[in-house]
């Protein structure tokens, strides 16, 4: 694979529909972000993404910044990808362009989730700096998939009906 694409995958014991629902809700991205850089969505971010949706994120690496992403790939319950660019008028032409992609494949035991970080379309000005972060990015992606799994497990546990404890038989007093 290209040095401009990093990919990690994990089998998550959940159906693709549940995983995709989280990925397609930009308001939940900070809940599973493994990098610690995603802070909060911009006001007005759609609850459900679709092809062509735009959504903004407040971010922080050393200092705060803002990005606006466009959903560029969308296949319900199978694949979603977005391409962020700086939210600032001139900077959005000079920086950004990487693609975050998630692909879901049902497998025994759950869903294989493949996350890719593709910088083939990254702006030339920022590409060398972004490429240098590939190792840290890969580690963050692994944490993202781990957090997705934890979040889905917690939501499944919450949704499961509470099991009643069996009634205890007590000996009758004489």
Give the amount of beta strand, in percent: 25-35%
The count of strands amounts to: 7
Distance between the termini: 79 Å
Q: Gyration radius, to the nearest Å?
A: 20 Å
In CATH terms, the superfamily is START domain
Query: Which regions have little confidence, pLDDT < 50, spanning 5+ residues?
Result: none
- Secondary-structure content class: alpha+beta
| Biggest β-sheet strands, sense, barrel | 7 strands, antiparallel
Assembly form of the protein: single chain
CATH class: Alpha Beta
Counted up, domains total 1
Can you count the helices? 5
Helical fraction equals 25-40%
At CATH level 3, the topology is: Alpha-D-Glucose-1,6-Bisphosphate, Chain A, domain 4
CATH architecture: 2-Layer Sandwich
Mean pLDDT: 88
What is the string of SSEs from the N terminus onward?
A: EHHEEEEHEEHH
Strand order, largest beta sheet: 1-7-6-5-4-3-2
What topology emerges from the helices and strands here?
Layout: E1 5-12, H1 16-23, H2 29-32, E2 38-41, E3 54-61, E4 63-75, E5 79-86, H3 91-94, E6 99-107, E7 110-118, H4 127-132, H5 134-159
Antiparallel strand pairs: 1-7, 2-3, 3-4, 4-5, 5-6, 6-7
């Amino acid at each position: 694979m290209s040095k401009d694409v990093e990919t990690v995958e994990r089998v998550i014991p959940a159906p693709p529909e549940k995983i995709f629902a989280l990925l397609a809700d930009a308001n939940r991205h900070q809940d599973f972000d493994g990098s610690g850089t995603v802070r909060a969505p911009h006001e007005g971010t759609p609850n459900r993404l679709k092809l062509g949706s735009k959504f903004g994120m407040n971010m922080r690496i050393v200092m705060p910044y803002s990005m606006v992403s466009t959903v560029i790939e969308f296949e319900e319950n199978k694949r979603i990808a977005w391409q962020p660019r700086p939210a600032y008028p001139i900077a959005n032409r000079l920086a950004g362009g990487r693609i975050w992609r998630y692909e879901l494949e049902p497998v025994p035991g759950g869903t294989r989730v493949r996350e890719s970080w593709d910088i083939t379309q990254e702006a030339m000005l920022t590409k060398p700096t972004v490429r240098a972060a590939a190792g840290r990015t890969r580690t963050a992606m692994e944490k993202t998939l781990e957090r997705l799994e934890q979040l889905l497990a917690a939501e499944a546990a919450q949704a499961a009906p509470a099991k009643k404890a069996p009634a205890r038989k007590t000996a009758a007093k004489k």
